[in-house]
Design a protein that fits this description.
It is a single chain. By secondary structure, this protein is an all-alpha fold. 51% of the residues lie in helices and 3% in strands. The chain has five helices and two strands; from the N terminus they run H-H-E-E-H-H-H. A two-stranded antiparallel sheet has the order 1-2. A hairpin with a 5-residue loop joins strand 1 and strand 2.
């Protein structure tokens, strides 16, 4: 994104140039994201404010960089607005699994062990996100 003039309102073509998102996509996003509603003139022309451009950038990041689908991005934006600010996505812990010199049974055992580690991480994250006074349901791994 390049520098652009600071104005009170921007036209759809200016916003398309600023954000790199085509005008027809911006109009589509208006129908898909309830939090994204630019003002319209009496003639029906869209007038975008800085907060609209910020919202477009957030949608763009969720869809194009983080790989969310429309419904997931909509939910994420709703959470961001409910939380009163931009909710930063948490980078998932990375695990490296190597299989050098292992037979099939050993590989499967290593995969199973890694999956159990991942399950423990997910449970720990859910426990952190659980509302105060509520415990997440305990589930046992089959194995």
């Amino acid at each position: 994104m390049s520098e652009y003039p600071s104005k009170l309102y921007y036209s759809i073509s200016e916003v398309a140039e600023i954000t790199g998102i085509k005008a027809h996509v911006l109009r589509y996003w208006e129908s898909e994201f309830p939090t994204f509603r630019p003002r319209k003139t009496r003639a029906g022309a869209r007038r975008y404010r800085q907060k609209d451009i910020d919202e477009i950038e957030a949608i763009k990041r969720l869809l194009y960089e983080e790989g969310f689908k429309i419904a997931g991005a909509r939910k994420q934006l709703r959470e961001m607005h409910r939380g009163g600010g931009a909710k930063k996505s948490v980078a998932a812990p990375q695990m490296k699994i190597t299989f050098d010199g292992l037979n099939d049974a050993e590989r499967l055992a290593k995969v199973k062990e890694s999956l159990q580690d991942i399950l423990e991480m997910v449970r720990a994250l859910k426990a952190q996100e659980a509302p105060a006074g509520r415990k997440p349901k305990a589930r046992r791994a089959k194995g």
